[in-house]
Design a protein that fits this description.
Distance between the termini: 51 Å
């Protein structure tokens, strides 16, 4: 007789808040847990948070969302920015990123914009591709303090939040700090 185990997806729940202590609980207290400090960018905090807790209460995964204004090809629009994606190092490879990002995108579909956008380091592009994200061709301008506009040095990826929502053609400018 063979035992069959059914993999139960982890429970993703909305988080009322997400603090630096929560981030440290997931990733540890390193100075640069996301590996982006060398970009010199100032980032916006996320406004909506989703997480996964183990049975003992330990927070082991997070994804945050924030609606953002942008211009594509000269037309103003909004996107849902996805960021702060974090999975505890000892639990990577168990589908937690898929679960927490998926739940966040399910919520993002209720917010109105047609697309979600994220920025990531090149080694993470393959992970996001497996989750259905697509790389944006071309440069993306983002705002920084003091009215500066810089080219995003990280990879920009997008995913549709509506059926048939292809990414529009044209230059992309995020009219805010990145998320």
């Amino acid at each position: 007789m063979t035992d069959h185990f059914v993999s139960v997806p982890p429970a993703v729940t909305p988080l009322a808040q997400y603090t630096r202590a929560d981030q440290d609980e997931i990733l540890g207290s390193g100075a640069d847990p996301f590996g982006v400090a060398d970009t010199g960018l100032t980032w916006l905090p996320k406004e909506i948070h989703f997480g996964i807790r183990q049975q003992d209460g330990r927070l082991v995964a997070h994804t945050g969302l924030r609606r953002l204004p942008l211009t594509v090809g000269g037309l103003d629009a909004e996107v849902v920015g996805v960021g702060g994606v974090a999975v505890a190092p000892d639990l990577r490879g168990h589908g937690l990123a898929r679960a927490v990002v998926g739940a966040a995108l399910d919520h993002a579909r209720t917010l109105g914009p047609r697309h979600a956008l994220l920025f990531c380091r090149p080694p993470l592009v393959a992970l996001y591709r497996r989750l259905g994200w697509r790389e944006l061709d071309g440069e993306v301008a983002v705002e920084q303090p003091g009215g500066r506009v810089v080219v995003m040095p990280l990879r920009t990826m997008w995913t549709p939040l509506r059926d048939g929502a292809d990414w529009p053609a044209g230059a992309v400018r995020l009219r805010s700090l990145p998320m």
